[in-house]
Amino acid sequence: MGISMRCMTTGRYRWRTWFRGVAPASLSWLAPKGKRDCGAHEWYRESADTWRCYHCEAGVTHENPWTPSETVRHSLAGLMALTEHPGPESAPEIQRLLREASMALEEQVDEAREVFRMVKEKTGVTVESPLISV
Ligand SMILES: [Zn+2]
């Protein structure tokens, strides 16, 4: 109830997304994605270089739309799923996800280092971190 109300009241197409999420795939034609830009894309990865919006057909990109932290989270989830039943054919995808997670993590550490440095400059407060030294 809470979930359905929230999804039906926030943003164009949200109820369709909700419906497609709870209905069997055979009924998905009842609630196709909206054709117009939903204005608040939420991305899922369709393939190595294509992301699509859950809500609308207009939402499609070939550049990673996720923030570094989203990229880390999704890459790790993908790695867990892929290694559940690993096959020889999954090695290239595992390699790609490892590389992407690693790059996004470095980006996050860089961001954190900048903030830690600013905090140190302005307040003098620091913390010992094996990952980040300022
Ligand atoms: Zn959208």
Give a written overview of the molecule:
The chain has helices at residues 2-9, 14-22, 68-84, 91-123; strands at 43-47, 50-53, 60-61. A three-stranded antiparallel sheet has the order 1-2-3, with no helix packed on it. A hairpin with a 6-residue loop joins β2 and β3 (60-61). The chain has two domains: 2-61, no CATH class; 68-123, no CATH class. By secondary structure, it is mainly α. α1 packs antiparallel against α2 (14-22) and α3 packs antiparallel against α4 (91-123). It is 50% helix and 8% strand. Zinc ion is lined by residues 38, 41, 53, 55-56, 59.
What topology emerges from the helices and strands here?
Blueprint (H helix, E strand, L loop, with lengths): L1 H8 L4 H9 L20 E5 L2 E4 L6 E2 L6 H17 L6 H33 L11
Antiparallel strand pairs: 1-2, 2-3
Helix pairs in contact: 1-2, 3-4
Bound molecules: zinc ion (ZN).
